[in-house]
Amino acid sequence: MTIKDTPEEWEIRATDTPFVGNKTSVRTDDVVMPDGTVVGRDYQVHPGSVAVLALDEADRVLVLRQYRHPVRHKLWEIPAGLLDVPGENPLHAAQRELYEEAHVKAEDWRVLTDVYTTPGGCDEAVRIFLARDLSEAEGERFAVEEEEADMELDRVPVEDLARGVLAGELHNNCLVVGVLSLLAARSGDGLDALRPAQAPWPARPFEA
């Protein structure tokens, strides 16, 4: 049997959006259960995100340390950002985030993995890219502000990040998923067998 997630949508009797924020909102749907009962389900509506596991020639990953107020932590993360424009090409968004947050460009791009971050309470979908053949970007650095103004940048060996993940010392979703997916890909068919950067993404359809 093939283990594969499949799309499905149960009947919605009513829907309401009690909160609309700058980037996300909260929605309440009255959903018909298999036994016919109707149950309210609250969830965050999210535009989607991209993240970049940028791997250099020394087998180090480009990481950022940033304050995240909801969890009251400074977390080590990989470059990431929102899909600000509906239908935006995720590769272009990922290239933009790598430039803005690290002033780096990459010549080789692959899809590492696609995930729903918290499907029990949010519809956020994230595409995590693997970027290789790194070099410094041209032009002036992007002007950062707010939390990003305090951001630290480093390059850390893959094995050190993997140890930190398994030791419970690193918690950012995209970093954890990205690092472990990288190791899984290496132990499987290899990094060159990963999906192309423009592979379809049903969770967030886009134009190539």
TrEMBL record:
This protein is called NUDIX hydrolase
- One term of GO molecular function: hydrolase activity
Coiled-coil-forming residues are none
Gene3D superfamilies for this protein: Nucleoside Triphosphate Pyrophosphohydrolase
State one Pfam family annotation. Answer: NUDIX
Q: Which CDD domains match?
A: NUDIX_ADPRase_Rv1700 (cd24158)
Recite the UniProt keywords alphabetically.
Hydrolase
User: Can the keyword Hydrolase be found in this entry's annotation?
Assistant: yes
Report if keyword NADP is assigned: no
Q: Where is the signal peptide?
A: none
**Which residues belong to any copy of the Nudix hydrolase domain?**
44-178
From what superkingdom does this record's organism come? Bacteria
